[in-house]
Each structure stands twice: as structure tokens, then as C-alpha cells.
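Example record for the data management plan.
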Amino acid sequence: MDETLVELGNYLSGKLSGSLLSKSLAFDELTLKVTRSEILSVLRLLRDDGRCRFEVLIDLCGVDYPGRENRFDVVYHLLSPRTNQRIRVKLETNEADTVPSAVDVFSVANWFEREAYDMYGILFSGHPDLRRMLTDYGFQGHPLRKDFPLTGYVEVRYDDDAKRVVYEPVKLNQEFRNFDFESPWEGANYLLPGDEKANGTPPAEKA
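Corresponding structural encoding:
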């Protein structure tokens, strides 16, 4: 176990006693779980404190746990080039409550937060331009939510008669098929077409 990360975790436990919910150290990575309302003060301390100097926001992303009351995690990955250390900060939120935008602390958070909004529907208060950036105009839903249908809600095609791109409800061109998901080594537990040749069963006569 990295002793410097242990010392850093103990140091931050004292500094963030009012906003730190938990901390964990696994696989030589330190993770802090903090309250949503205090995220900006936590990020500023990690950036400005002389013991930390986490001056680079590498990534900000969302994670969906639809079974929880607060279904989303917002995860911040920070790097300190001066100490060559990394740290992860996490908070919980839901579809209605907003997360304070980190753009004033790390300007790079601008597009990261827009992506989290587009993919998960996570709202960031104080963001200068919170709009979709990866999906198309008029897109319905948020495609990285685990309850988002794999087919989506609409399909896009070019209409030669109208001479423009049109949006239509998704239509499946074939019926759903039933899959048993059994091991291919064991084989299906029902008769497949052609199996009658192997076991001597006469083929069914067509009416």
C-alpha cells in the first residue's frame, strides 16, 4: 500500500471533516466521497492546498445506479503533476437535484459536464452553457442511462420525397426472437431444424 496516499487520506480527513462522507484506498488509488453541496470547496482545497496541488482535472463522468434513491454518481479524477499523484472524488445526485458546476474551479469541466448532462441527464447549476453536445437536436432521453432502450426512441433517415432528414418512431423490421442463452457446448434443450437427421427422428410432414 502506498504510504504517501495513506498520509494524504489522513490529512484530508482532517481538512474535509465537514464535507467528507467516506474515504477508501484500493489498488493504490485514493477515493473520497463527499457531499454534493460542498463539492466546489473540496475541489478548491485539492487544487490550492500546498500538500495536495491537484491542479489538473483529468476527467468528470457520470455513473448510473437506477436502483438507488440517488441514482447517479458524479466522479472527478484529479492529477497533481507536482507530486505525481492521482485522486478520485465522488458524490451522489438524482434526476431533480443539481450539482454545482466546477467550471469556475477547472475550466475544462465545461465540456465534461455537458457530456454528463447529455448522456445521463445530470444537471449542473451555474454552468455557462448546459446543452447537449454529442446527440442530435431534439434527441429524446439520455443514452447512457441503464433504462434507456437499446433501440432508442426514434430513428433517422433521409426522405427522398421531402428532400430532408426525418425522425420517425423506431420500427423493428423482424419479429423478436427467443434466445435461451445456454452454453453452446451443451446445446439447446429443444429440437432444432436438422437435428432429426442425427437422431433418426423422421422429419415432420408438411401439411
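Summary line stored alongside the record: DSSP finds four helices and nine strands in the chain.
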